[in-house]
Amino acid sequence: MNVPVRNLNLDLDLHSRLDVGRPAMELGSGVQIKGCKRKALTIPNIWEERSKWLKYEVSSKDETIKRLQAKTLELQAELKSVKEAKLHQEVELKNERDDLKVQYFKARNDCTAQFDQYMEERINRPLPGIVVVKRKAQGVCDPESLQALQEQVQELQAENLAMKQHTQILHKSFASQVEKVSLQVQEAIKENAALSLSLLEKYKREIVKRKALHDTLVELRGNIRVYMRPKPLRQSEGGVSVFSHDPYDDTVVSVPMKSRSFQLEKVFSPEATQSEVFGEVSALIQSVLDGRNVCIFAYGQTGSGKTYTMEGSLEDPGVNQRALKLLYEETQSATNMTYEIKASMMEIYNETIRDLLGSEPNERLEVKMKPEGGLHVPGLVSVPVKSLTEINRISKVAQENRVTASTMMNERSSRSHCILCVSVEETNRITGSKSKGRLNLVDLAGSERVSKSQVEGARLKEAQSINRSLSCLGDVINALKNHHPHVPYRNSKLTYLLQESLGGDSKTIMILQASSHPDNLNETLSTLSFGQRVFSVELNSKNTPSSARRPQSETPSSARKFAVPNDNPSTETGARTPTGSLVKASSVPSRLNVKRET
Ligand code: ADP
Ligand code: MG
């Protein structure tokens, strides 16, 4: 049977070896594999060929094995010789190390021996001084030289003693001289101290006298007091304060740079606390409970501390909150009286009154005369003060409603007058009688010069309005102090609103706020001049002691109209001479020719 080679299950390896790139191989029986496609092979032939092939393969593998075995033997011999060499090296290294050890111990022993020897030599070496002494001792052993030396020593000792005695004498005389001089110095110091003490006592007595006169003056002057609170310099501002204070006299403040001094009712130190300032006004606030009317104003340029003094902060409140608290606490402890305290808060901005506690803060309010007499502001919200929390709430709401705008002087510049009105109605439980007192706490708008704050347009109008109303306030105070027949209350909303709290036996305190910084010197001087004119008074000759006729004010106040610092001549109240000074009010046509309202 003929079987084609491709159908046989031949080893693929064999098949490929047979077929690929080899010269045709003789397979025996005349059969050639290369021709197997054409010639069919029989099975016995194939097995025969296959066995031949395998034999050939085995013999070639045997040869390879033999070759490898020979190679292995070669490598084993090589390994053996390497091992022997390594062993040999190790032995050599060990010998070398042993040699080194021996050398090391030998060297160490040598060193120790040398060191010991050196030390022994050092210890036993005689000191040079001893050698010298020994040599000298050998030299002076001669009795003559020894005698001479002893004589020399005795001479030297005698000389030494004489010098000592001389020194003692000198020392004693020096000590007595020093004592004499120090006694003289002490005497001089005592004399000086006594002199300065007597001068100080004299000065203090003078101050007391002057204060007594001052008090008389205040009494005679009546109801208007002027305080001054300097705003302290901040560390970051640097510079030196423009003020100088007399530690013995708190009624005088000086501005050395301009050689000017101002006398006022009270000058606070720059470090004065909120509570100290309140302490000075609290007595007056208490008089509201007795049915008095009181006005407290804070006056000064923007940034000088008006709002700080009047409102302060939540942690360290100013006059407003402390006043409400004081009134509230006083009324709580009263036994035979009942009190009703009410507060309202307004602002006057551009001659327009706005309610700071109302729900419509933009509504314009007006001052009206009541049919039964007296002034009132219809529609103004009045809040009963029934707790301390209520007091805080009032301040907060009012602050939020207040008009503020930015100027070059102060970012959060107050351009309006802010007035806290507190009314206290007292009822006597036993008699049923009633009395009513009113407290007006006014944080005035900034009094700075128009040109300095560099404002224009609406802001210029604001500034002019502020200056006009401050000027009117000065005019009213001036007219009241000097008992003028006409008091120009109606010339500004502020004075008209406060009319009933300014005249009669009402009390007024003006707190001047002034910056200590040299940059604000002109504004500071203007503020102080304004205050000085409020403070000074031309008293009636019939009730005035001649010594108290006028304190050291700069100009008789009645001779001047009130002028707030202002560069704008249109808003100035007096008339100016070519040199710029204000002339007497009586000599210029007055625009304040208004009849007294009350
Ligand atoms: P004004 O109301 O006059 O424009 P402010 O009361 O707003 O001025 O004061 C301006 C700044 O100066 C505020 O930051 C205020 O806290 C600070 N200040 C004013 N007076 C004092 C003072 N006596 N001590 C410490 N800081 C003050
Ligand atoms: Mg302010």
Can you describe what's shown?
By secondary structure, this protein is an alpha+beta fold. The protein has 13 helices and 17 strands. A hairpin with a 7-residue loop joins β13 and β14. The longest helix has 82 residues, at 43-124. It is flat. It starts with 11 loop residues before the first helix and ends in a 63-residue tail after the last helix. Mean pLDDT is 76; it is low at 1-36, 405-413 and 538-598. Bound molecules: adenosine-5'-diphosphate and magnesium ion. Residues 541-558, 567-580 have a biased composition (Polar residues). It is found in: Cytoplasm, Cytoskeleton.
Helix-strand blueprint:
Elements (H helix, E strand, L loop, with lengths): L11 H8 L23 H82 L3 H13 L2 H79 L2 E8 L12 E3 L2 E7 L4 E4 L2 E2 L6 H13 L6 E7 L6 H5 L8 H15 L3 E13 L2 E4 L8 E2 L2 E2 L5 E2 L6 E2 L3 H14 L2 E2 L7 E2 L2 E12 L5 E10 L6 H4 L4 H24 L11 H5 L1 H4 L4 E9 L5 H15 L63
Parallel strand pairs: 1-5, 1-17, 6-16, 6-17
Antiparallel strand pairs: 2-3, 3-4, 7-8, 7-12, 7-15, 8-9, 10-11, 13-14, 15-16
Helix pairs in contact: 5-7, 7-8
